[in-house]
Amino acid sequence: MNVLQNFKYLILGIILFSLAKAEAHNPVNPCNRHEPFQVLCDLCGCSTSSGSFGFGTLSNANFVGVRYIYQNFESKNGIFENSPISKETFNTIQLWAQIPINDSFYVTTSLPYQDLTRDFNNVKENLNGLGDASVIGWYKHVFYKKKDESVVDFNPNKEPSGHSLQFGLGVKLPTGQFEQRLADNINPGFQVGTGSIDGVFSLGYNYGSDKFGVNTLLSYYLKGENKNDYQFGDQFSYAVNFFTAIPRQKMNIMPFVGLSGDVYDSITQYDETLRDTDGNIVNFSFGSELAIEKFIFGASYTLPVSQSLFGDNVQSKQRLSVYINFAL
Amino acid sequence: MKFLKYTFALLACAIITACSSDDDNNQAEDLTGQTGVITLKYDNGVGDQDFIFGTSYNKSNSESFKLDNLKYMISNVRFTDSNGNIFEYPTEDNVFIINELDGNNAGEIFVTLEGVDAADYVSVTFGVGIDQDRFALGAAGQGTFLDYATDQGMMWSWASGYKFIRLDGTFSTSTVSNQPLNIHMGSVGTALDNYKEVTLSFPNTVLVRADKSPEVHIKADIAKVFDGATSVNFADGYDQVHTDVNETPIIASNIATMFEVHHVHND
Fold first, then answer.
1. Backbone phi, psi, residue B76, to 5°
2. Which domain holds residue A95?
3. Are B48 and A81 an interchain contact pair (Cβ–Cβ within 8 Å)?
């Protein structure tokens, strides 16, 4: 088992190390270079969560960076309406990157460290450790402007129309530890990892002009079964973000707003469905990025608009995310 | 292009793993001689509210009640597995008092049953109170339970026998308020037989193994004592229920409707 674990880390290491060596791409029109980098957030730690953890960076296709995510939840500890509430605070620090392979292919990867705390009747329980790493390979199809055939064009370069499609295929690895004893809690997301290998299928559509852009992303997470015969429910995530670019002398300010959501299937164990383990949530987010030379500083705040998670026993309260990325 | 290869190699692994069937479930496990532990977690509530001492709860007929004592007896616990086989816990130890005061910080009272045969259980059956066979064993045949029940205030006398349920507190109606409420229901020796059994099916299979200790979370709706199969009113004399031949069977039938398995945890 250890050999396997080490092998996983080795691959991740290779990918992350290669980042440093990857050639920097020339920054072009920032709005045409955004990519829907979506972090793999399933129920675990990075949690009840939403695919709406947002795209990585609005302005740069390729980057390596660090992100911090703060989340609050409230869970009912008991089976009654007035059962006492426990408060959960999830802190996540994540190394994340988007690495170019060639003009059409790129890879996104993330490696989170989770620090989760539950406060119940003033008794605190803490859980921390490496979370689940993920790697997704993407193919990007860029649409070009049609040329007017009556005009002789001496410029051989095609002009991008601003529209593009992305297809992603990836995997989430069980680098975080799943603990069965925690699964008996009302909030099954109080775990640093799912303990399973999950498949990820994504389809994205982006549009970007000089002043305005839209990123959309649909993802399906096919959850695997872990060694405890425990299987988180499959997850469908969607996200739409609108952003604009405000150029300043030495920086580019890009505010954005978005809607996102997740739909969770029920958890199964020993091939039986567990009651009150499905759910859905719709979130509203806003934030901004600040691009100064090769650095991108980002912050976003997310609030649930409507939710029904785990038989309404778990409530997502808010989410704050800040990141610093270095454009490659 | 190396990245691409790694990525697709990983993807292939993931998809193959995710899609491969789990064959080890198809082989029959040999469970002979294996035993495990089941914990029954009794959780008292009133409707969808957690039961709390001193809280006033409304019932039918615009009446309300407030309790400072809540206990009942459980006995003859047995489990039925997916093949219809029944495991019954050893008779001499198979009697328990569920006392709200023994609840943990979530108000759950644990009954831990050790040495349960390993099997895939689909339901639990238990009695509320003491059956006539157990009572017929005589005072000496009750083992340590007789003293325990006496200490717990769950005995009248040997002749009158055990109190199967004990609710003490106050009640209010539209005309009176905070009057004493005492429900002490039993079989009254052998004069009546108010012992009732309930069978509750599990929402998920309960897997007992040497290395698995499942928990069964049983919700008991105290409101059903008064508004169960039959609705009874304090104003009609159900504020003091002791040995009455008419009242006690109605309370006994009501109590038999108050249990439900809310969920199970397989460890």
1. 50, 50
2. 2-327
3. yes
